[in-house]
Design brief:
Helix 3 packs parallel to helix 4. The protein has about 210 residues and is mostly helical. It has 6 helices and 5 strands. It binds nicotinamide-adenine-dinucleotide. The site of nicotinamide-adenine-dinucleotide has 17 residues, from helix 3, strand 2 and strand 4.
Length: about 210
């Protein structure tokens, strides 16, 4: 992030979503990109509260601050783990039932449900991405990172958990970011068309009243 510090259009605030007031950061924003989360799947088995607090409660706080500040657009990073042990790979978006097998997956599914309800109740728009394993040069967790660490410790041997036949999907970070901007653009286009349609029907009604 340091590379952006000289950019006048960039501002960095360090804050804890759960405990710090967020109002000042949200006012005047067009959209919120909510990526903060605890993404460590394994932690859930040791401390079941962590994902509820850092993912579900933190997302609720973000949604509430958006509602109060009148921000209508949210970009949210969910996860493919909400599908649980999907029988269909690649898994389509309308796959169901959604049966997560980790507290992390359950917490992100709860976030999606909250986001959906806020969008419908308060006229917000959201784009939700169910990413699988994102890989890139600044990777700090996940299976590929674990493999690299293991190979650094012992280049002659690689321990693979499970029976070794499992498969996983991966996405490169640049493709992931491009997809997120694409989704944001799609929301703006959708909003523009909705407004144009509304204005159009308003004009048609006025015409009808006059005529
Ligand atoms: N990396 C992946 O493969 C992957 C896959 C699917 C979904 N995701 C999702 O994408 C997002 C980003 O993932 P990442 O891999 O960059 O994770 P990351 O752990 O590198 O980044 C998450 C950030 O959230 C911050 N955070 C956590 N709790 C916070 C709080 N209460 N207040 C403020 N900040 C807080 C952490 O400090 C961290 O900087 C997450 O929502 C994750 O669940 C990631």
């Amino acid at each position: 992030m340091k590379e952006h510090f000289g950019n006048k259009r960039f501002r960095f605030h360090r804050a804890d979503l759960l405990n710090d007031p967020l109002r000042n950061f949200f006012e005047g924003c067009d959209a919120v990109w909510h990526l903060a989360a605890n993404p460590e799947v394994r932690i859930g088995a040791e401390n079941p509260k962590i994902h509820i607090e850092q993912n579900v409660l933190a997302t609720h706080k973000v949604l509430e601050e958006m509602r109060k500040a009148g921000i209508k657009t949210l970009v949210f990073t969910s996860t493919s783990t909400i599908y649980g042990e999907a029988e269909q790979i690649p898994t389509p978006e309308n796959y169901g039932p959604l049966l997560p097998i980790s507290l992390y997956g359950a917490s992100k599914l709860a976030c999606e449900a909250l986001i959906s309800a806020y969008c419908h109740t308060f006229g917000m728009n959201a784009v939700i991405y169910r990413f699988a394993n994102v890989v890139g040069k600044r990777l700090r967790h996940g299976v590929i990172y674990d493999f690299i660490m293991k190979l650094k410790r012992n280049p002659n041997e690689l321990e693979i958990l499970g029976d070794g036949t499992q498969t996983k999907s991966y996405i490169y970070i640049d493709d992931c970011i491009n997809a997120m901007f694409f989704g944001l653009k799609a929301i703006s286009q959708h909003e523009k068309h909705k407004n144009e349609a509304k204005e159009g029907s308003g004009k048609a009604k006025r015409k009808k009243l006059r005529g």
